Amino acid sequence: MLDRSKAPDFRIPTSIEFPTPIQRTLPNGVHLYFIPTPEIDAVRLEISSTINERNEVKKLAPYFALEMVTEGTKSKTSKELDDFFDTYAAEVETESGFENHGLSILSTKKHFDTVLPVFRELLTEATFPEKELSKRKKQKALSIHINRDKNSHRASQLFRKALFGEDHPFGQITEEKDVDVINREDLVDFYKKDLWTNSQIFLTGNLDDSQLEDIIRETGNIPVEFFPNPPMSFSNKKQQRLTEEKEKSVQSSIRIGCHLISKSHPDYFKLNLMNTILGGYFGSRLIKNIREDKGHTYGIYSSIGGLKNADYWVVMADVIKEHDEAVIEEVYKEIDKLKNEPVSAHELEVVRNYMVGKLLSQFSSGFELISRFKSIHQAGLDFDFYQQHLEYILKAKPEDIMEVSEKYLSRDKMVEIIVG
């Protein structure tokens, strides 16, 4: 008999079981990756492309092209598309990132055969009506105007500009004038030439063989362009400090950070552990020092930004304005402690348990599985990355944290931003 008066033994898992995605190559050269989920009567299909940075492409053309694919096709108006997807409980979403963009659909298994051909129309038959474009432009211009007055948003913009450079797409700041110059021809040109480049399809759901063949047939003739996509590399420069004063602000938004290494680097897992201890969760050292002990902020966090081949590290905080310099100094003091003082066994064990739990929670559904697979696959890795991460967390040593803190978090290579 099970004794319910006793709690189950506490055990930390030592391995993670992952399904092997089914891979198919479509007639147009696109690779499709499929993780079956028989327990969920839903289907999610995403087509994701690499951004092709042609000089002729206007800054906001990709954004508007993706946002407007549901505003009408050659056979359906915007309203007809909305009514159709609502009727069949289907949801179309866009992805618009630094390195990838794409389109996805989530539908029930029962209605997926019906919605797939209409979703297929969005990929090649969008019309970009002038009236809808005018509305979208006004909305985007207003959003840019509002966000410019938000210290946190502005600080993040300036951080990217300083870190990547204003000539690199990652460092460019969008302004109202970029909205003004967009016209329908820009969207049509981008849609035809650059939207589907180096594309891949990520699929999950309860699908039988015939439905999988239907998907291959519907997406296997999408015109996709393929081009070399060499990995990008970035280097840290001499320390940069940028301050943007706002007299009426009572708070300052702070960003401190630098370029790091790729996920495939041997030090990556050590850096992830170091980041968690410093500012990666609510019990971190930055929270305890700057929020709990000194009361300078409601929240301060550090994180590792996700790029395919070269991640970056950043500390983010909104602080009481008169304490911004003090907060920056406390951040560096905490970094110096990590360099010079071994983390205690107790603190390491607390963070170890937190990180294991967080890692395992990322795979609670088939949709999360395919999302995690996509993120590492596009970085040239596979599911073994997560198993290696778990194994490292379980055997991590205090010396690892001291080593990578000293190696990568040098103050003279940091970008510092203060807005407020």
Which parts are unreliable, with pLDDT below 50 for 5 consecutive residues or more?
Answer: none
Total helical elements:
15
How many β strands by DSSP? 11
Biggest sheet, in brief? 6 strands, mixed
Count the domains.
Answer: 2
Q: Helical amount among residues, as a percent range? A: 40-55%
Q: What would you call the shape?
A: globular
- Mean pLDDT figure: 93
Specify the CATH class of the largest domain: Alpha Beta
As a percent range, the share of strand residues is 15-25%
For CATH, the homologous superfamily of the largest domain is named as: Metalloenzyme, LuxS/M16 peptidase-like
N-to-C series of helices and strands: EEEHHEEHHHHHEHEEHHEEHHHHHE
CATH architecture of the largest domain: 2-Layer Sandwich
Distance between the termini: 64 Å
Kindly provide the radius of gyration, computed on alpha-carbon positions and rounded to a whole number of angstroms. 24 Å
Assign the CATH topology of the largest domain: Cytochrome Bc1 Complex, Chain A, domain 1
